[in-house]
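Tokens in:
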């Protein structure tokens, strides 16, 4: 029995199992009553993906490349109206890029969110985009892949 526990502890703490597959994280949350989006992905993944696209060259500005890439591969809608995000702030941390976006959309007005996401799918068909909604007393996650590029989530009505 103790041998089983030792093996289990090794598996759970081993770094070789910590990162299975490539993932990007898209988290929708509330900031000052308005919708905020935080996107996190590995810098390496972005560089590899941009190599497969003609949108950027090595001399292009990274900020412009990211903005163009997301514009072409990611969209979110609230009740069928495209959400306009602004004020992109970029932070580099531990081989990841973290992008913060703000919007003028009041969270309390959101009835449903529709996400269309094909980010990183041409670079790696096994890539997963993890969509997290931490809004309106709901905290849930969807996994998007090259086979699932659209989701719609309807929020519970608040009483």
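Residues out:
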């Amino acid at each position: 029995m103790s041998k089983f526990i030792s093996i289990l502890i090794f598996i759970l703490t081993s770094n070789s199992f910590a990162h299975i597959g490539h993932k990007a994280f898209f988290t929708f949350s509330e900031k000052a009553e308005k919708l905020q989006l935080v996107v996190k992905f590995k810098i390496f993944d972005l560089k590899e993906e941009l190599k497969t696209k003609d949108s950027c060259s090595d001399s292009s500005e990274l900020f412009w490349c990211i903005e163009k890439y997301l514009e072409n591969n990611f969209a979110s809608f609230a009740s069928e109206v495209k959400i306009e995000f602004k004020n992109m702030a970029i932070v580099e941390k531990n081989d990841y890029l973290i992008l913060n976006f703000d919007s003028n959309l009041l969270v309390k007005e959101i009835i449903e969110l529709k996400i269309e996401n094909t980010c990183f799918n041409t670079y790696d068909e096994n890539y997963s985009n993890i969509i997290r909604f931490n809004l309106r007393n709901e905290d849930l996650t969807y996994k998007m892949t090259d086979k699932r590029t659209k989701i719609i989530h309807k929020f519970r009505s608040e009483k």
